[in-house]
Write a structure and sequence with these properties.
22% strand; single chain
């Protein structure tokens, strides 16, 4: 079944000639976008795009489909704008960039009340690394972005925070520290280490460097926090992850708090266009009331 997201994705792919960039624009993963395009083409019964190694082209029939889709979405947007004007809303869309650990944990609950209060305003969530979020804000690609540990004066509203924790094998001597206060970075620095970045510049390695320490035995380097925890459970080393990224089940592993505690804080930052966007400012107003 084709839906509006399929049609928006179709136009984004046609305009960008690239599925990955188009997926970012509509707030999907690359794999999800590829599956959606395949479903759309299967529903139509003919290919819309031609696939080359580094370029996506459009077939002759695809050009006609895209032309109709562009007109259809333009008319739909016109109807939505008319409805928004009747309700006193002058902007119907806000683009919000975030990184995975916040997208999956904090944002759904924060956006639920806003959607109830402003059903006519669409919030498009784009997911990337913390560096990509900063780049999108600087380029004015998005109206709002979730920034980790934002510098003073930039933050419009704090949306949450979490603590860094150590994960060690349940049989490891440091596992006893889970009940006796915690573990220091110094105690972890010389351990066999599973380094996970989560796609973020702030990670176990950078935390060590900020403390004047160095990881001396990095056994594995992964991006995914949960993958690092699972490797710890297999006895391959220890790791540092944000508390919000811990898997629901950690069989064979033990979570140990850090002493002193280290926190990540998440602030919502406005781009230049976000400052004048009615939709973005409405979202900020709602979030401030929820905090």
């Amino acid at each position: 079944m084709m839906n509006l997201l399929h049609w928006r994705l179709l136009l984004a792919v046609a305009d960008a000639s690239n599925i990955s960039r188009a997926a970012e624009q509509v707030g999907m993963t690359q794999s999800g976008a590829s599956q959606a395009i395949a479903q759309l083409e299967a529903s139509l019964g003919f290919p819309v795009f031609t696939r080359e190694r580094r370029h996506i082209g459009v077939t002759a029939l695809g050009e006609q489909v895209i032309e109709h889709a562009r007109r259809m979405l333009a008319q739909l947007n016109a109807i939505r704008e008319l409805a928004d004007e009747q309700r006193g809303l002058k902007g119907g869309r806000a683009r919000l960039a975030s990184f995975p650990s916040v997208t999956s944990t904090l944002l759904p609950a924060l956006l639920r009340e806003f959607k109830r209060l402003h059903p006519g305003i669409e919030v498009v969530v784009l997911e990337g690394t913390d560096d990509e979020v900063e780049a999108w804000l600087a380029a004015d690609t998005v109206e709002l972005g979730v920034v980790m540990n934002p510098a003073g004066g930039r933050t419009e509203v704090i949306v949450g925070q979490d603590a860094w924790v150590a994960v060690v094998p349940a049989s490891h001597p440091l596992a006893r520290n889970a009940r006796s206060g915690g573990v220091t970075l110094q105690q972890l620095a010389d351990q066999p280490f599973i380094l996970a970045t989560g796609g973020c510049a702030v990670n176990g390695k950078s935390l060590m460097e900020q403390a004047g320490l160095r990881l001396t035995d990095i056994r594995v380097n992964v991006r995914d926090w949960i993958s690092a925890c699972l490797l710890v459970c297999e006895g391959m080393g220890v790791t540092l992850v944000p508390e919000s990224a811990l898997p629901a089940v950690l069989q064979g592993g033990c979570v140990v708090p850090l002493i002193p505690a280290i926190h990540r804080q998440f602030g919502l930052v406005c781009s230049p266009s976000g400052q004048s966007s009615f939709a973005a400012q409405s979202l900020l107003t709602t979030l401030r009331k929820e905090r």
